[in-house]
Amino acid sequence: MKSFTSRVLPQSLTSKVEELIQQDRDNKREWVIGVLLCAFAATIVMIINIILTIIAVAVAYSRTEDQGFVSATLYEGKCSTQKNWARGLHLLINILSTIMLAASNYCMQCLSSPSRQNIDDLHPQQEWLDIGIPSLKNLFFIGWRRRVLWMVLLVSSLPIHLMFVCKTMFSDFDFEHQPNNDTDFANCFEDNIAMSMSDFYSEEFEKLDTQKCKDTYAVDFLAGRGNLIIITNNSTVDNKSLLWAGSQNGPLVFGNNPFGWMCDAWVSNITVQPAGSVCATHPYSSMGKEPYMVGHCRSQKIDEKCQLVFNLPICLAVIFCNAAKVFCMFLTAHDERREILLTVGDAVSSFMDKPDTMTEGNCLLSKFDITKSSQSSTTLQPGKKRWMKSSVCSPHLSDGSPNFYRCFLLLGISGFLLGLTISSLAAAAEKTSISSLWNLGFGTPSANALMKLWEYGGDGSNLSAVLLANCPQIPVSVAYFLYNNILTTMLLAAEYDGYAQQRKSLRVSWPKGHQRSTYYLTLPYQYSFPLMVAHTLLHWLISQSLFYVQVLPFDARGNPVPEKQLVACGYSPIAIIFAMSLGGLMVCAILGMGMKCYKTNIPLAVSCSAAVSAACHPPPGGGDPLKPIKWGEIPEQAARLDPRTSSGKVETGEEEIALRSLSSLCPESSLDIGRYHELCTVDGERSLTPDPSWQGQESHASQVQFLTGENASSDGGEQSEGHCSFSSLGAIAPSLGRPYA
Predict the structure, then answer these.
(1) Where are the domains of the chain?
(2) Are 355 and 623 in contact (CB under 8 A)?
(3) What is the reported pTM?
(4) pLDDT digits (tens, 9 = 90+) for 66-100
(5) pLDDT at 326 over 90
(6) Compositional bias (Polar residues) at which positions (predicted)?
(7) Which residues contact 562 (CB under 8 A, 6 or more apart)?
């Protein structure tokens, strides 16, 4: 069967790549293969980003209108088309970002993961390193070169979601400029609007009844509509039905109500201000107190002007960060370190093959013991450890509680900000019920939910608004990192606990023999997929909670007025509530998982290199990590059965002696030697540990000690020290109350 490289690479490169891979395997640098695959994937993503940027520049700057350097329009037209393009581009960007971030995270973990040589150098100094999890602690003990590469990979991940920005341009009226005034309203209107009265009755203007007129224009931001003509049933002295022409959609003209013109009493109270000298023959004129009955409206239909905009400086920054990532990944692949311990399985395999003498005699050492010892500034010395009661419950959460509290802190800060948002709406006399908040829109601009930080739009304000709108994505990414760390730690400890239940093959980065392949970045698929979906959904909800808004007003002639544009950040309270609900649900989910109890009382090494090495001092012949292994008490007769070999196989005759001795010690157990033979067969080999399916007799047999003159006094005095370890020969459950070293 063809290899993966032969299927995806040209024939001329296949042999060279496979030669390099085999060379890395021979030099115990298998981890470099994963780094190179990540570097190639990141290179492909960078090339795609460059191609997309070139296409965007070609499309944007080929348009007739002037384009700025900071912001350029890719598309202008129907809002539905713009939204479809936006969704497609966002999906593509999320896919590329996920690939880039996954590759970056893998390389960062390789950079911070210790080699066996690093651990052998640090353990004599009473220091330990994390194995199998993303670790900041390890950064203090790695070289400056790897530390710089790690930091560059981290910082270059920040602008990855900022490549394209969608901007909706609403065709609003000019907020401040009012029409000229003249006694001949019809002439004045034509001078101001450059439109004849006959145009009102063309297909360009749609006739609307009064109710539909209100419904159409009673919106915060209007798209697809232009001038509005309100026609009354009254006539003027000169038999004209046009009474007044004006701009009205902003609070700067007539008080703080932008929809006052829809009310019955408005027209009798307005004053027309002179705006120029074309038709102005009076300083002002009043509409008087006479009521005017509105007959109907004529609304000008115009093309929608929704735009898809990209920011060239941000695109260049993204490409630069992509290039920096690729460069750092290839530099990482040139690291000459050997035997990198990416997972706890890698560490167990290494320590079983070559035990660490610095932790010998501390077989019950846990990460908690190491941490407590380092806090009290005491050195680690060989000592006796007693097995605690098996009924003690050790919640999973205790292994990752600091990160859990950090996640909870971020959620609390979000809740505080949401409270400020709702209180500000209440202070503005806005209703704060769920239905009222929903009416403000889900990720859509609302006049009552804008943060106007810039007076008028410009390149600087546009860029600042884009960066501000995307700032919440950074703490969400940090929260994901912490959440992933908690989940990885708990699952790592749960898998470690499983080795004390039954014999299992080690899960390592590059399996050999009976070993199993590790999960990518240590998370099983049933956890990683839901986490990625929840993380993506949370990012999307955050993007709907705070977003970039730009409103460009148009004058009555349909010309844009860019100096009066509004640049702001809009927020959606209902989207914030949904985002917080999802975040709270994720915290509750991991809290519920954390309350589960481990099934055994194995001292949890979690990710601590010293605790893992302390549990890996197998008996002679039991240190083969390529076979299924188990952690527990090493029976002394089992350790002496075949000290001349490392295969871990037990000769039938010696096994019979051991089992008959066990039967003589415990005649009441009615131990079936034939059944024990059957249950001790694992993968065609024999061991002294029964299969866990033998429930009835295993619990009793596990507490039986192979008592000899060396481990028990004849007068029933204190038991001698036992020993616990990972072993390929098998092990039994440690006894309550017996000292182990």
Answers:
(1) 18-166+311-341, 172-303, 343-388+617-741, 393-600
(2) yes
(3) 0.68
(4) 666 667 788 888 777 877 787 677 777 767 877 88
(5) yes
(6) 690-717
(7) 457, 552
